[in-house]
Automatic annotation (TrEMBL):
Gene3D superfamilies: Histone deacetylase domain. Keywords: Hydrolase. Belongs to the histone deacetylase family. It holds the Pfam family Hist_deacetyl. The keyword Secreted does not apply. The keyword Cell membrane does not apply. GO terms for biological process: epigenetic regulation of gene expression. GO terms for molecular function: histone deacetylase activity; hydrolase activity. Residues 18-290 form the Histone deacetylase domain. This is Histone deacetylase. It comes from the Bacteria.
């Protein structure tokens, strides 16, 4: 069964000196295979996303200038990467990976993109290491092909999903839920369907109690028929950019809460890894691998 999107380009899109935080994308599948959690047969390499799918979420002029490498230096400074053909290729393959994961999840309950979670990309601009918004592209794909009518995006990266919020601000078919550090990047927040901004230093206990309180009520209110889950591990206490205080165990429990609720309600969920910036890459890889293990256990994947 293929249920994990991975391509080597996820890990090697940039010139030397610009790889962080890219190394984790190579290490995650390697670690899962080493531990016997998955095999090569569970991995698939996505093709580039079709232009028509990209343009449902992004402005035509922005996309044209991106693919022709005509974005300005100022635009690329906001994104944080040097522009290259390989970077654009990486972005469109990540986007297709999330589309593919959504389609696989409809069949098997869950699928996971080793990359993805590019939630700072707006319709007409990128920022925060994000050029194209993979969840927005994939959500629009499902809606366009009438494979879903009401989508819930659960964004548990420590940074607000500002681009995602902006893309769907006037679209009642997509409910955007972001739990993030209130005083963290981006410092100018957009308005999601529901935002929960947490103070610096929020503990794992408080975080998990909030999630167990909010998520069931949210599912009951929104009544989605498909879920996208951004499982960023920059919520860890070890994260250089996170400012929250979750442990590896807390992060694993967070994933369990989300996956268990989706499984109980018979909802398919497509997952992207999102951020993770701990100084010790082993912390990042362990936390992300725990997400894969939890998904496999709860959805009984083979």
């Amino acid at each position: 069964m293929k249920y994990i999107a991975y391509d080597p380009i996820f890990a090697h899109p940039l010139p030397d000196g610009h790889r962080f935080p890219m190394a984790k994308y190579e290490l995650i599948p390697g670690q899962l295979i080493y531990e016997g959690v998955i095999t090569e047969a569970n991995l698939f390499a996505p093709q580039p996303a079709a232009e028509e799918d990209i343009l449902r979420a992004h402005d035509a002029d922005y996309w044209r200038r991106m693919k022709n490498q005509q974005l300005t230096e100022r635009e690329m400074r906001a994104i944080g990467f040097p522009l290259s053909a390989q970077l654009v290729e990486r972005e469109i393959r990540i986007a297709q990976g999330s589309i593919d994961c959504a389609l696989i999840a409809l069949q098997n309950g869950v699928a996971l993109n080793v990359a993805g979670g590019t939630h700072h990309a707006f319709p007409d601009k990128g920022e925060g290491f994000c050029l194209l918004n993979d969840f927005a592209i994939a959500a629009h794909y499902l809606l366009h092909h009438q494979l879903a009518k009401k989508i819930l995006i659960i964004d548990l990266d420590v940074h607000q999903g500002n681009g995602t919020a902006a893309i769907f601000k006037d679209d009642p078919r997509v409910f955007t839920f972001s739990v993030h550090g209130q005083h963290n990047y981006p410092f100018r927040k957009e308005t999601s369907s529901l935002d929960i901004g947490l103070p610096d230093g929020t503990s794992g206990i408080d975080y998990l109690n909030m999630l167990e309180r909010e998520l069931p009520a949210l599912f009951a209110s929104v009544q989605p028929d498909f879920v996208f889950y951004l499982s960023g591990v920059d919520v860890l206490a070890t994260d250089k950019l996170g400012k929250l205080k979750l442990s590896l165990t807390d992060c694993k429990h967070r994933d369990e809460i989300v996956f268990s609720l989706c499984r109980r309600q018979k909802l398919s969920v497509a997952v992207a890894m999102g951020g993770g910036y701990s100084a010790d890459v082993r912390q990042i890889v362990t936390a992300h691998c725990n997400t894969f293990k939890m998904a496999k256990e709860i959805f009984d994947l083979h």
